[in-house]
Amino acid sequence: MTAAATIRVAMPEDADALIALFAAYRAEADTPPSRLTAAVLRRDGLGRCFKSLVATAPNGPLIGFALWQPTYEPDNARAGGYLSDLYVTPTWRRRGVASALICAVARAVKATNGRFLAWSTERENAGARALYDRIAEAGENLVPYISDAKRFDALAG
C-alpha cells in the first residue's frame, strides 16, 4: 500500500473500470485500441491466462493496474513472472503507485516460488525507464521480438 493508494487483486466487478483504464493506457501510448473487453478480462485476466492487480484511490476508484503472468526460465531452472502491462493515471504518477504495483507482482511471483520478474518498455518512455532503472537491470544485450498476426499464423501453420 502506498501512502494514499491500495493495491489488491482485481475482482470481476472491476472489469469495466479496468478496461476503461486500459483504453486510456493504449491511447496515451498512441497504440491502436485493444481487443481486450470486460468479458475477455473476466474470462482470461483473473487468473486463467494472466493475473490482474489494481491500485485504488482512498475513495475507491481504480487509478492503476498491473497485468502479469507466470513464466519459466529453463536455462536457470527457475519460475518467475512477466509483467506485460503497467499503468497509473497521470494524476497519480510519481506517488509510488507504479512501484507498489510492481512490488505486489513481485510478491505474488515469490509466493509461487518464482525468482524473477521480467518486463519491457518502449525505449522512449523516459518516465517508466527512470523507475525501472532504479529497481531492475536493463537487458543491454537483449532484443525483444514478437510474432503475431500473419507472421504468427505462418509460424503456427
Characterize the largest beta sheet: strand count, sense, and whether it forms a barrel.
5 strands, mixed
Uncertain segments = none
Strand order of the largest sheet: 1-2-3-4-5
How many H/I helices? Answer: 5
Structural class: alpha+beta
In percent, how helical is the residue content? Answer: 25-40%
CATH topology: Aminopeptidase
Number of separate domains: 1
| CATH homologous superfamily label | Gcn5-related N-acetyltransferase (GNAT)
What is the mean predicted local confidence, pLDDT?
A: 91
Rounded Rg: 16 Å
**Given this structure, which CATH class is correct?**
Alpha Beta
Looking at the structure, what is the overall shape? Answer: globular
